[in-house]
Every structure is written in C-alpha cells, then in structure tokens.
Amino acid sequence: MKQKLLLILACVALLPGIAMALTVKGLVVDETGEPVAGATIRCEGSQSGTATDLDGQFTLDVPETAKNLIVSFVGMITQNVAVKPQVRVVLKENANNLDEVVVIGYGQVKKKDVLGSITTVKEKDLQDRTTGNVLEAMRGLTSGVKITNSGQAGSSPSMVIRGLGSLTNNTPLFIIDGAYAGNELGVNVEDIESIQVLKDASSAAIYGSRAANGVVIIKTKSGQGDGKLKVKFDAQLQLNWLPRYDLMDAETYKLYDNRAYDEAILAGVDKVFQRQNHYNGNTDWQDAMLRTGTLQNYNVAMSGGNEALNFYTSFNYMNDKGAMKYTGFEKYGFRVNTAGKKGIFSYGENLYYTYSTTKVLNSVGNVWSNFISMPPTIPVYDPEHDSGFGYGDSDRANSYGLNPIAMQELDQRVNKQEYLFGNVYGQVEYPEWARAKVNVAYKSYIGTTDRLRKSGSWTMGQGSDSAVLGWNEARYHDILVEQTYEFFHTFGKHDISALAGMSWNHFIQRDHSLTRQNPAQTDDKYLTEIDAATGDMTAGGNYGEYNLISYFGRINYNYDDKYLVQLTGRRDGTSKLPSKRRWGNFFSGSVGWRISQEAFFDIDWINDLKIRANYGSLGNSNIGNWDYVATLNSGPRAVFGTAENVAIGATQSRLVNTDLVWEKKTTFNVGVDFTVLNNRLRLSADYFNAKSKDLLVYLPILMSTGNEGGAPAVNAGSLTNNGVEVELSWNDHVGDFFYSATLNLSHVRNRVDDLGYGQDEYLTATSLSRIGSPLAQWNLYKMLGIFQSQEEIDNYVNSQGKIIQPNAKPGDIKYDDYNDDGQISSDDRQDCGSPWPKLEMGLNLTFAWKGIDLAINTYGRFGQKVFNGAAYTAGDFQDNQNNFNGIVPWTQEHPVNDRPRIIYGDSRNTRYDQDRWLEDGSFYRISDITLGYTFPQKWTRKIGMQNARFAITGKNLVTFTKYSGLDPEFADSGIWTQGYDGCSFPNPRAVQFALSFNF
Amino acid sequence: MKKFSIILASALIGCGLTTVVSSCSEDGLDIENGNSLNTSNFWKTESDAEKGVVAVYNMFYRQGTWTRNIYTQLNGMADDGVSYAGWSELAEYSKFIFTNYNFSEFNTKAYSEHYVAINRANQVLDHIDDIPFADSKHRDDLKAQTKFLRAFYYYYLANIWENIPICLTTSSAADRPEQGDLDRMLTIVENDLLDARNDLPLTRPESEYGRPTRGAAYALLAKAYAQHHKWNEAAEALKWIVEGEGKPLYDLVSDYGDNFRESTENNRESLYEIQFSMVMGTVGFDGTDNYASSSAQLGTQIEINQSPAGIGWNNIEANRWLVDWFKREKTVDGKNDPRLYYTLFYREAADDFPDNDNRIYKWDSWNEGWGNRVFIRKYSTDTHVNDIYYWNGNNFRSLRLADMLLLYAEVLNEINGAPTDQAIDLVNRVRTRAGLPELANSTYYNLATIKSSKEAFLNHIKTERALELACECVRWFDLKRWGIDNEQTLAELKSRDSDFNNFIIGKSIRVPLPQKDVDNNPNLKQNPNY
Q: Which of A698, A860, B449, B506 is the most interior residue, by most CB within 10 Å?
C-alpha cells in the first residue's frame, strides 16, 4: 500500500508539463464524519492523483476532460465521484477487508492469515442493537453460534458455539481486553470495538483447558492518537411487549370446566359428584401481570489523546422497567481505558465498574405456567383470605395454581450487584524483533439479595407461615496474572513469530446468608432491617476457591504469504482435579495455503483464495471446586427423649468419583476462504469434527444409591459433534446506493459415543440417549388418535388379539402398543424425533443511500422437535387449569381425532410423556429492522456536531413458525431436556428509538 | 545499548512474575475444602459413629418418609383411607391409577429417601467395626439401632414396591444393584432384626426415647414374619412381647386417645414411636427435605396433610364405612365406641359424642360444605386453633401394643388352624380397653360364629384391626398379608372403597418402581404388568 502511494506521488511529481485546467479541492470522511487520512484520489483516464492529508483534505489538478475521481482507501469501498471544484466523499467500510486485523489469543493476525475458524462482529454490526447485553446484540450475526435469551428484565442470554460439546457447561470463555470475564460480561455494547468468536481448536488452543466451548474475545474502544477530543452520546428508548397466551375468559372456562366435571361424573371418576361452585371472578391473569415495558439506555463516551497517551471513558445508564410487573433492571456503568507509550515501553489499563439493581420474581413458581394453571374465575383479591388475595378452594376452584400477583406482593426480592472489572498491562517492545508483556487482570463482585416474605398465602392449603426477612451476599475475586514473550522477525520471504507465556489464575468466593422471622410491622408496613425482627434467626455461609496455572506457547510461520503454519501448546494445572490427575497438555497445529498468491494462479476475478486445516485438543474442567473430595454432611439432626434433645448427625450424602480427569476435546477443522469479484463477494466455509472424551458430567445416578445433593461429577462418555458452517457476504454499491448481504448457515450433528458407568443408554422421563445416536432424543408414548367408539376400543388389539386399552372410553387417546404386548406399559415409549435443529441460519441485509440506512437482521432454526410445556400445563381441565381459546376437544357431536375428551381428575389423556405435546419448533424470525438517518453534516456542523443520527428499530416483530407456544426461541432447561419449553419466559416484541451524536 | 535495556527490562518483569507465579505454583493447586469435613477423617471415633447413627434417624423427617407422603399413600391404598386431593395425580396414586411412574411427590421421593436412609445405615455398618470403643456394648447398641432402622426402611420399601434393589453396603455411583423380591427382602428385614434384638436394651432412659428397644425389634420382627406368613416365627416374637420379657414393659393405656396426643407420647402402649418435635421453631415451608441443613424441621405434616378442606390439604381422609362399623356396637355403658371419636371427624360426631369437644380446628361445628365426608382426627392438634401450622410435634406411634395383641391372635389362629382361647382373650383385651364388652357379650358379633373356624376368626380379626388401627398406615399391609388375589375379595373391597375399582389383580398389589431407576439399571425390571 505504502509503495503504491509513493508510486502515485512519484507519477504526479514526474509529470509537471501537462496542461492543468481544473483544481479540485475535497474532503474525504468515513461514515461517522471522521476525516480519512491517506486516502488515494485518482483521476479516471489520467495519470494524476494524490492522497489526503491528516485532516482528510486534498487538492488535485485534473485535466479539463476529466469526468470522475476514483477515491480509495484500505478497508473501504472504492468510490467514483464526479469532478467538481469542491467535493466531499464519504467512504463506506468494506466488510470483506482482508487486511483487517483479527484479534486472537495473546495477539492478532490479519484476516487473510487466519488459519482457524473465527468470526468477527464489529462495532457497526452492533449499532442500534443495544439492550445493554452483548450476547443479545450478537444474535444471528455469526455462524455456528446459538444465542438464546429470556425476555425477563435483567436476564442474561446463553451462548453455545458449535453445538453441545460438554455436558456440564457449554458457555464459551469470554475475554474482555485480556481479562477473563464470567457470564456477567462486564461491558457496555456501546464500548465495544470488536468481538471475535474463536470456534475451533487452532484458534482457541492457546487457552487450552478453558476453551473447549470456544472463545469470545471482546475488545473495547480506545482513544485516538490524533490530538482531538471526541465525544459520543447515545440514547435509546425502547417500548416492549410480551406475547400472551390466548386463554379463555371466565365464562368460556366455566362452560368447559363444567363439561369436564360432567364427563368425570359420568365416567365415574372417584369422588367427583358435582360441578365446581365457581367463584364469580373474571380475571385475566396476564393482563394483571403484564404491561408495556420501557427501557431507557444512555451512554456518553469521551475519547482522545496524542501519540504518547490516549484515553477512552464512558458512562452508561440503563433503566429497564420490564414488561412484566414486579420486574425491573437498573444499571450504572463507568469505563476508563487509557494507554500510553514512551519509547520501547507502553502501558495501559482498562477499568469497568457497574452497579445494578434487579427486581427478582418469586422463585417458587413459574409465572407463565400459572397464567394457565390459575382458573380465571378466581379474583385477584379476595378479602375472605387472610392475605387478601384470591386462590383456589376445594369447592369453588379446586386448584393449586399460584396467584402470581400475590406471589410477588408477598415475597419481594431485590438483587443488587456490583462489579469491578479491569486489567493493567505493561509492555516493552524491540521493534521488529521482540515484545514482552505483563498483564494483571482483576475482577471483583459483590451481589446481595434482600428478601421480605410477608405472611399470608398465595395458594390453597399453604399453612400459616410467619413473615421472614432474608439477606444473602455473594462476593468473589478473580485474579489473573499473565506474562508473555513474543519474538517475531521477517527474513526475506520468511515471516516467523513465536510466543511463550504463563498465567496464574486465582478465584475465591464467599457466600453468606441470614434469615430472621417476624420483622417488626406497623399496620401493613414491614421494617426490613434484621434488627427490627424478633423471631428465630438462621445463618449460613460457605466459600469456594480454585487455582489454575498454565504455560503456553505458539509458533507462526509464513512463507511468502503462501504457506502458513501455526503450532500451539498449553499445559494447565487445576486445583479442581485430584493431585495425580490435575495437569493436562493441549496441542494444536494448523496449516494454510493461499493459492491465490501462487505464481501459476492467474484467475483475475478471484482476489484471494486460501485453504486451511487444523487439528488440536482442548480441555475442560468446568466443575465444582472440590468434586473429587468426599465430604461430610453435618446437617442431619434427630430428636430424642421426652425433653426433645436434638442430636447431631453426620453422614456422607453426596457420592463422589475420586478419579476425575480432564475432559478433552479434539477438533479437526478444514476451511476455505474465498474472496472474489473485486472483494465484493466473500465466502468462508468450514467443516469440523469435534470429539469430546471423558466428558465431565453430573450424570444422574440411580436413586437406589441413596445419593443426595446432586449427582456426582463423572468422566462419563464421549460425544462427537460434526458440522458445516458457511458464511457468505456480498458488498457493493450502485452510485450512492450501498448494500450488503451476509448469510450464515450452520448444520451441527452430535452423536453419543459412550455414556459412562458402562451403560449403553441413558433415559430420562422424556428422553433417550443411546450410543451411536444424538443426545437426548425424544422417547415418549405415541398417540395414534382418539377412540371414536366402543367398537374401536374393542377392535384395538395386539397381534394375539388382546384388547390393548380395555378401560378406555370413546374420546380417550389411543396409544401405540409399540412392543405389541397387549397393554400400554413403560416399554411402549419410542423414538419421537430429535430436539436438535437440522439447520441454523442468519441473514443480515443492509442498505444505505445518502444519509438513510436500513438494516434487517433475521435468523432461524429448522427441523427441531420441541415440547410445548404450555399445552401440557393446560392439561385438559384435569386440575381445573385454564385452557386456550378455540380448542375442540372430542365429544360425541364433534368427534375429532387429535384432542381427547376433557375430564376432570383423570390423567389418562394428559400424561406428560406422550408425543401429543411435541411440535415442529422450526422458526424464522426477523429479529431487528432498523431504519436510520444520519443528518447532513452541513447542518450538524453548524450546531457544533460532527455527526448526528436517529434510528428506529423493530425487534422480534415478525416470526414465522408453526409452533403454537409463545416463543419458539426459548432457553433449554438442561442437557437432558433439550427442546423442552416449560413455559419459558418469552422474548418481547419491541420498538426502539435511538439517537446518537458525535462531537 | 537499547537492545540490552530491553533484555534487562524483560528479564526483570519475567523474574518478578516468575517469582509470583512459582511461589503459588504447584502447591497452589492443593486447596482445602473448608466448607465441610472431609470423610477421610471421619469414622474414627465413637462420636463419629454416634453421629452416623443420628443421620439415619434423621431420615424420618422427610417428605417422602414420615413427614408427609407415606400417610397419603399407605392410607389411600388401603380401604380405610381415600384421597380427595386437589392435586389429581396425587389422588390417583392412592387409587391404583399409576400413570406416571416417576411421579415425584410420592413415587420417586419416597423411594429415593428410603434408599438414602438405607445408604446412611450401610455407611455406619461398614465402618463401625473398625472404630475403637471404650465399651464394646456401646458399639453393639449403635449397630443394633442401625440394623433396626435399616430393617424398618426395608420393611416399608419391600411392602410398597416389593421387587426392589438390594443394597446392603455403602453405595458407589456406578452401582447397578440386583433386584430382590418380597420373600428375599423380608428375609433381609428379619435377619437385621434378629441380629439387632439382643444388643438392644429392654428399656431406655427417658432421654433416649426414640431409640429402639428390644421390644421394638421384636415388634417389627413379628410384623415382618407375619407379612412373610412365617407364622411360627411370628408367634415367637409376639410371645416375647405379650408373655415373655416384654410383658411387664408394655400395656394398653386406659384412654385410647392417649395414643394420638402429643401430651401422652412414649407411653406404655408404644413399642416404637417416631419422635417429632417443634424444637426447630417455625422455619418456613422450605424447612423440610433440606438434606444438609442443620435447621431443617423435625416436626411432622401428618396433621395439615389430612385436615379437612379449607383448613389443611385434605390429601387423605377416611371412608364412610368406618363410621358405620364403629357404630355397630355400644360400649358397656351404652355409649358409642370412643375409638370412633378419636379416629374421625364426621357430620354426626357431635350427636354421637355429646360429652366431647366437637370443634374442628377453626370451625365450631361441622362445615356443611363437607357433606358426608369423613376426616381423620388421629394425630390432630388437641387444642382449638385458627390455622394449623405446616408441622406439629406429635410423635407417630409406629408400633403399638394393640396392633401386636391383635396380630398375635391372628398368628395363633393361623398356627392352630382354629382360634384358641388365648386368641379370643387377646381380642377381648383390645375391645375392653375401648369400653366394649367381651366378644361373648357382644350385642353385634356372635362369639360362636367367630370361633367356628379359622376363616371366621380371621374375618373377625380383620374387623377388629380395621377399627382399632384405622388410618394408622397399617391397613394396606394387612390387606396384602390377607391377599387380594381373587375376585371375591376384590368385590368386597370395592363395596367399601371404590378406589378398588381400579385395582387389577396381579398388578396393583405393588406400586410400579420409579421408571428412572428401571430404565437405567439393567438389573432392575419393572414390576409385572406395568
């Protein structure tokens, strides 16, 4: 690039004799209005050209005949502009830039030299996505990454890279500015410069034992060294709404519930003699609990500096008044990043502090399932009850549904969290040879939860409990000390670099809790300090601690930009494994060949073509701190004698496996990177095969062992994940109209290779995992249809002529007698499909014309079978639950074949382990549509602004799916219950207004 | 020079750090768990053994054992109890409708908590012989207590599920225990009790009430033998209680109601009581089933579980026929059988027992909304209360003499093929305590008929047991002992309790094993026909 520039300048200098007719003066800026220094300006059809100065200004003399100027800059889309005396050129970023720098563990490489599978998300992709959570902002932007969120204010989404590789924890390792971050992700979206997702072994290997689930590296912004101060202000206002079940009102409910009782009386269900003497309420429980949520988010960032010192500071405030009443989240965040350089020394630090308050829902019951469980006849308030709230009554509404309003009113929890997160580093560098760096990262957390449980009931038969105050606090410190040495040099066509380092990580955590009965009370008000309570007190506390010591190294070799080789090794020792087994070694090797650099390669339209392959191992010891140590449970007590003396007991409650070893994952990855048609089209495709061995898992063990306190950790079995990922992007413009499209597709398949404890299969109530098949396949009773007549029941026989369901009545479900033994028994459960998507995709489109831009982000998952927990919860009036409008249960008059008769107090048709509740969970969602407008600079300049932008975003407004639950995108409830939507908190629909200024 | 300074600087940083890191190095990877004691330092002293045994007793205080669910299930399956529970799955389970074999509230909870108790006992038995004791008698006592408790849990496990895994040593995670059957499991129970009995003292000081005595071991042994139809062995054990060493120790209390009052716990009629107490105070609803909390509840939920709709959970109540049967006979002074009063709440109680307190918790009189329903009064709070609490401290009389006397009568009848005079006397002893006439003077029963055959006497015993022991979790095992293997027996049960309409001969006599354990233990087969 530099050479090219010199050449052009030389050309200009060497041609003084040509007649100049016109002088063009111009300014080149980027999309944010920042001047672009060093951009090349060439006159079409002539030799003349120049480059912009530091202020983005240029002056060029062109022949009179000249029509167009060609303006280009590295990483930007080349622009043609008409010749005028004054021109202003806005350069847009080219997403397919090959010289772009990609951050990898302990270093960075150019995109064209990347050997692993890495996806980058940039600041621009995150613009307008807000909501304060990085992960949510990343949804659909990368291939091979599954992000699922719950719509609850203050909740954190989950992220899984390339399918389930581990059975304990599938959360990738997050690194923010060189410091390990936990799931809490102490970072504002607005502060992020880039995110790199490291998906395969070669990219992640330098993180060894921590990287089995992939690595996400987040880099925050730093100040510019141009001596100018930059101020950026962002504000967003979001209005959001939660989807609702279409539930019956009281009148309709009574109609159906009466029918369910009539059916029960008719069918002789034991002890049912009369209909319910219904309450007179007509409560829409959803209406009572839901509202329009408002989320406000403000961010001010200031940055600047000179060559010696630069800084970036920001302040963030977010207030999320959740769309469910009694929820809310408020957060303050401060960031200071500074960096300085003096000669060979450089120094820097990144600090982030955040304080947040979350209103927590009562954890006793799921609000969404209680919307269904609570009969609409029950009033929200009922003065008959001591608590003043309505709930079930055996005669009037025989339901154990929990009144969701009462639950929150009577049990209030507020969670306050503080994080201090940051790192300090120092570095010495001998240019073109070596670099040594020390990095110390520290994270501190204090979280407290205050609880007030007022006395009073929210459900039938709740016993009279005294009021109680609760307080608990969790603190932790996480310290990381790292030192790295790098050597790099270029000898002719050989480019070598090597890295060696070590790190020490120490984590310590303490939890304390207190409860005290009988808080002091004045009228209806409770005093919430512990001292103001008079009753019994309990206290608890525990701590956790671990250390991880690591040594690592990496060698990169590059010959003539054609042949690329990378070798990585890491040795980790952890305190979480028994002393003889605590060290693990992890290696990886990668090779790449840039075919397009070869002399023989002469295809013009291909700009770059690289094939790459790597193989490596990663580890995981993401288990409890002392899972290999058998501990004593000193809690048990018993009482003896007339004086009721309490005796102290002790026993081992939780079994342990003392021979735990590192879980290892070996990954093979081949990929191709392809950039064609003048860098407009880029294709990246990867195939991977990842085999996890000695999986650490809390595999449930037999109840007959008498184990308590959670299943012991065990190295149980192995799992293979293989898949294909494709990322395709197109970037171009027609005149002033710029557009881009990025498509990412992934297909991952997992297979169980071994299950531990010598077992061939592992069954849960609804799933079966068998060696050779994917994990957790649905294993259920199959519904064949509905018995339409007694004759059909009598004719439903097995091969021996035995009547299979002799006790059935017309309107009951006809279950498949899978094993043909003439009865419906536990052996009739069968494979009912897979909870795993066959295809996951994201499609993102951007359009820009002058100041207007439009971005559409979409994604979808296809082919998975999911369990509709809401439909199961409704349960056909078995326990007087509410149900959905429009259901057509079987009756003599409406002999349908897909829904049985409704019947109170009888579970024959509503068992949970049947395929009746399974549905196709495929969906395609337009997650964000953003329309933005950047005000013309000639206006904004006048009021002293560099740039001003307004945008409106619609979130989750359109979802294409056949799934009848609230939201096809829900958080999985566990490894063995994949695809189980147990009335999960749905994602809200939202409209967001965003305003952004640069000074 | 520049190069040198770089090398120097790097070296300095490097050394500094290496010092930091290596000083924390390998040793730093050994971190002690200070949250709880490590088992490798346990099972060393007498005190450790004592604690280990207390942990077995602790299993009485769990929802799947004697805090709550066993009352619903055992009374519900029997013909004396019935469930109107608002939780239909819970109700169905007590009516032989087992849809979900993993039903958490009873099937997995009760089964797993029984095995927790067994594993706690196994730990004691595997270690106690290696622990030095100052007085080996103390060891023998602790061992005997543990064996009694293991037998106690296996007795219930075996009689509820029958074909259960056999676990007699400390569990490990990979265990796939083999399956026993009722015969084998009862043999295990009997052997433990035979081992235990002689090391248990005849009596214990007041401060030790709750730990089994020799009488308790004989009583449970007798019950196990009887379930096993080992009549001679059962007779021997019962003889020890009724005529032998146990004779001076036990007697029927004069007031039948004393068997269910908190103020008259550990009386002479009790051979074994589960000790409940409210010493832990009123910690909230979550205070049970916390396996590791030292402040977990030590009370029972028997009362709230069975108290009437609108007061408690009414998970379990009684069938109407009990009232009718009680009223067939009057006491010698012409009153209704006092056992009826102490057993049940029902609409006409105030008329039947005008001299007694007929308030029902917060209601002064029968709530007409309850109609003809019959609630269980046994173990309910004596005092008139507005709201009952989740727990109370009333001991559960698990083995009481009246049960033994009637069982002895039954066993003697089996051995002799006909009722002996002694058998009649035993029955009379139970009857006269309630104020009823001896059988010879009964206004309803005919002694001659009762004495006419083994079958006739057995039939009468069934009635006496039904009334004396109603709703005490005894009846279901009685029905099993007598057998429900023919349509005639079943028809009779159906006539008293419509729950038996769902009973399938050869299947419903045992509860399905929790499917999760069947699915994942290749040595365990689901019970027949499930």
A: A860
